[in-house]
C-alpha cells in the first residue's frame, strides 16, 4: 500500500472530533486558591454575554476561552460586563472589583471598543472620545450627575494597563474583534479606528498587545460572508461558534507574544487546537503589501478552508529563494511550530535563478547535486557555503519530516510567455544543456528538478506547473493576459490570476489526499473538483 494514499491528517480527525464533543465548563477554580496565577478577562458583552447553551443564542468569547487554559495551573475569570465601554466599566466599579483581587504574577486581558462610540439610554456613560491621546472634554455623568472629565478611548485603556502593572500583574490590551460587516468580499477591519487606537494605547502604556481585529478577521475572511453569517447572532454579537472562533484567535495571538509565560498555561487540548497546513514559497504565493496589483495564490487559497477545522498559514515570503528562506531563519521559524500530521506545501525556484552574490545574494547553485561554492556574502557580510537548489529542497523535506509533519512539493507557477505555436511556454525536458541557455528567459527547469527531488525522496508532488499550463492553453493568450500584474511582469499574478492558481492548487491537493480531505474545507472549497491524477506523483 502506498503510504501517501492515506490522508495525512486522518490520524488526528478522531482526536479533534472527540475534543469538540467534551462539555465546556463555564467557570474556573474559585479564587480562594492562591497557589496558581490568575487570568482576568475584562470587556463588554463580546467577552461575556449569555452563557447560552444554544448554538444560535448570543455567547461571549470568554466562555469559550476559559476552558482553553489548564485549570490545574491557572485560574481564569470571565469578568466581562455587557453594555460597558472602557469608561463605563471603570466608573461603575467593575474594574475596582478586579483590581482588588489582582496579585503579582496575574494577567489581565482587556478588550473594549464596541460600546465606546455609542450613546444609549439603556447603557449611559459609555461614550468615550475617539483617539488614544490626552484630549478631554468636560461633561456631566448621567449616572452620578456630577461633573466629569471625558477622556479618549486610548486614555482609558492606558489607565487599565497602568493600574494592573502597579499591582504587579501583566496587562494585555486587545483591539476589538470585527463586526459582521463586509466590504468587497472581506470583513471590515479596523473597527472605525479603534483597532489602531488600542495598538497606540498599548505602545504608550508599555503593555502587551493582541491585534484580535486582524486575527479574527483573517479567520472570517477564510469562511466567507455566507458561512460567517452563522457565526453571528446579530451584527456584532456571536453565536457559540463565533465565540469559539474569537477565543481561538486569542490563543493564536498569545502564542506569538514573546517572553509571555501565560502561553505555557494553555491547555494541552488547545495546543494545538487544530491541525495545520503551511504554504512555503516566494512572491508568487505570498501576500503582497507594497504593490496592490500583485497577489500570491496562497491569499485566496485560505478561503477554501474551514478555520474551525484546520489552521492554514501562508508563510510564503516575497523575494526569497530556496536558499534565503533557509538562511534568513524562515524555515526554522515554521519548523518550530509544526506538529505531527501537519501538512507543508513547498514551492520555490523563481528566485533561485539569480546570482549567488550580488546586492540581494539569493541565487542557489544551478543543480540538484551536492556541489557547493564558498562566498563572502555581500549582503550579510558573512562567509557562506552555498548549495544547490536540490540540496536546499531536500533540507526542507528533512526538516519538516523531523517534526512528524508531511511535506508536499509543488512545481512552479507558469509565466505569461508564449511560443510561435500559440502554446504557453512550459518547463523543459530533463537533460537540457544549460550552458547554452539564458536562465532568465529560457523555460524554467526548476519544476523538473522539484519533481526529481520529490521522486528521489518519496515525497508527494503536485504538478501545478502543467495544470496551469493546460488551462492557459485552453484559454489562450488574450484571456491569460488578464491574470497578470502587467505586460512587463510575466511572473506575478493580479488578484484574478491568484484565484485561478489557488483553485488549481486545491484541485491538485484534493486529487492527492482524497475525499477525506473535504472535512477541512469551507463550502467554497468543497465545490472545487479534484484534478486528474496524472498531475499527481505519490
Keywords:
Rossmann fold; 538 residues; alpha/beta; 2 domains; six-stranded mixed beta sheet; five-stranded parallel beta sheet
Describe the structure.
With 538 residues, the chain is α/β, with parallel strands linked by helices. The chain has 2 domains: 31-270, 3-Layer(aba) Sandwich (Rossmann fold); 276-532, SGNH hydrolase (Rossmann fold). The protein has helices at 10-20, 61-65, 88-91, 94-101, 153-166, 194-205, 212-223, 225-228, 240-256, 298-301, 322-327, 330-335, 389-401, 446-456, 464-475, 477-480, 495-513, 523-526, and strands spanning 38-43, 75-78, 107-111, 136-140, 147-151, 170-174, 182-183, 186-187, 208-210, 276-280, 311-314, 343-346, 373-376, 383-386, 406-410, 461-462, 484-486, 489-493, 536-537. Strands 11-10-12-15-16-19 form a 6-stranded mixed beta sheet, sandwiched between helices. Strands 2-1-3-6-9 form a 5-stranded parallel beta sheet, sandwiched between helices. Helix 5 (153-166) runs parallel beside helix 6, helix 7 (212-223) packs across helix 9 (240-256) and helix 13 (389-401) packs across helix 14 (446-456). The N and C termini lie close together (11 Å).
Short description:
The chain is of the alpha/beta class.
List the helices and strands and how they pair.
Elements: H1 10-20, E1 38-43, H2 61-65, E2 75-78, H3 88-91, H4 94-101, E3 107-111, E4 136-140, E5 147-151, H5 153-166, E6 170-174, E7 182-183, E8 186-187, H6 194-205, E9 208-210, H7 212-223, H8 225-228, H9 240-256, E10 276-280, H10 298-301, E11 311-314, H11 322-327, H12 330-335, E12 343-346, E13 373-376, E14 383-386, H13 389-401, E15 406-410, H14 446-456, E16 461-462, H15 464-475, H16 477-480, E17 484-486, E18 489-493, H17 495-513, H18 523-526, E19 536-537
Helix pairs in contact: 5-6, 7-9, 13-14
Amino acid at each position: 500500500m502506498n503510504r501517501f494514499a492515506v490522508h495525512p491528517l486522518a490520524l488526528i480527525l478522531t482526536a479533534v472530533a472527540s475534543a469538540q464533543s467534551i462539555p465546556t465548563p463555564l467557570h474556573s477554580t474559585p479564587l480562594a486558591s492562591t497557589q496558581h496565577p490568575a487570568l482576568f478577562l475584562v470587556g463588554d458583552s463580546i467577552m461575556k454575554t449569555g452563557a447560552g447553551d444554544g448554538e444560535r443564542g448570543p455567547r461571549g468569547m470568554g466562555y469559550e476561552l476559559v476552558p482553553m487554559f489548564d485549570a490545574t495551573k491557572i485560574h481564569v475569570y470571565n469578568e466581562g460586563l455587557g453594555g460597558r465601554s472602557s469608561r463605563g466599566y471603570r466608573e461603575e466599579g467593575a474594574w475596582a472589583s478586579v483590581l482588588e483581587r489582582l496579585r503579582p504574577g496575574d494577567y489581565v486581558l482587556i478588550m473594549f471598543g464596541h460600546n465606546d462610540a455609542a450613546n444609549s439610554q439603556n447603557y449611559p456613560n459609555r461614550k468615550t472620545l475617539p483617539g488614544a491621546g490626552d484630549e478631554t472634554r468636560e461633561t456631566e455623568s448621567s449616572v452620578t450627575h456630577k461633573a466629569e472629565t471625558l477622556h479618549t478611548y486610548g486614555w482609558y485603556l492606558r489607565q487599565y494597563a497602568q493600574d494592573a502593572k502597579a499591582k504587579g500583574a501583566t496587562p494585555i490590551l486587545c483591539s476589538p474583534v470585527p463586526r459582521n460587516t463586509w466590504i468587497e468580499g472581506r470583513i471590515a477591519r479596523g473597527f472605525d479606528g479603534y483597532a489602531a487606537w488600542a495598538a497606540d494605547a498599548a505602545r504608550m502604556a508599555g503593555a502587551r498587545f493582541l491585534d484580535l481585529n486582524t486575527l479574527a478577521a483573517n479567520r472570517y475572511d477564510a469562511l466567507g460572508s455566507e458561512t460567517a453569517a452563522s457565526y453571528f447572532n446579530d451584527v456584532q454579537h456571536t453565536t457559540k461558534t463565533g465565540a469559539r472562533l474569537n477565543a481561538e484567535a486569542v490563543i493564536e495571538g498569545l502564542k506569538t507574544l514573546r517572553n509571555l509565560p501565560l502561553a505555557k498555561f494553555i491547555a494541552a487540548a488547545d495546543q494545538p487546537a487544530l491541525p495545520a497546513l503551511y504554504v512555503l514559497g516566494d512572491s508568487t504565493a505570498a501576500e503582497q503589501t507594497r504593490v496592490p496589483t500583485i497577489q500570491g495564490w496562497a491569499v485566496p487559497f485560505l478561503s477554501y478552508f474551514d478555520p474551525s477545522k484546520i489552521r492554514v498559514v501562508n508563510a510564503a515570503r516575497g523575494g526569497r529563494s530556496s536558499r534565503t528562506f533557509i538562511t534568513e531563519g524562515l524555515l526554522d521559524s515554521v519548523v518550530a511550530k509544526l506538529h505531527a500530521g501537519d501538512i507543508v506545501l513547498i514551492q520555490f525556484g523563481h528566485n533561485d535563478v539569480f546570482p549567488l552574490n550580488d546586492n540581494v545574494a539569493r541565487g542557489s547553485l544551478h543543480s540538484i547535486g551536492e556541489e557547493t561554492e564558498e562566498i563572502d556574502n555581500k549582503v550579510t557580510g558573512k562567509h557562506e557555503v552555498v548549495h544547490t537548489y536540490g540540496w536546499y529542497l531536500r533540507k526542507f523535506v528533512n526538516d519538516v519530516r523531523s517534526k512528524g509533519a508531511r511535506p508536499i512539493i509543488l512545481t512552479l507557477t507558469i509565466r505569461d510567455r508564449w511560443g510561435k505555436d500559440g502554446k504557453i511556454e512550459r518547463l523543459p525536458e530533463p537533460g537540457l544543456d544549460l550552458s547554452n541557455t539564458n536562465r532568465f528567459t529560457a523555460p524554467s527547469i526548476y519544476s523538473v528538478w522539484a519533481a526529481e527531488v520529490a521522486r528521489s525522496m518519496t515525497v508527494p508532488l503536485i504538478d501545478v506547473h502543467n495544470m496551469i499550463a493546460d488551462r492557459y492553453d485552453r484559454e489562450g493568450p488574450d484571456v491569460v493576459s488578464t491574470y497578470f500584474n502587467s505586460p512587463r511582469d510575466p511572473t506575478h499574478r493580479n488578484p484574478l490570476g491568484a484565484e485561478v492558481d489557488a483553485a488549481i492548487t486545491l484541485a491538485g491537493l484534493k486529487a492527492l489526499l482524497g475525499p477525506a480531505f473535504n472535512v477541512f474545507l469551507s463550502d467554497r472549497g468543497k465545490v472545487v473538483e479534484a484534478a486528474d491524477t496524472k498531475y499527481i506523483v505519490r
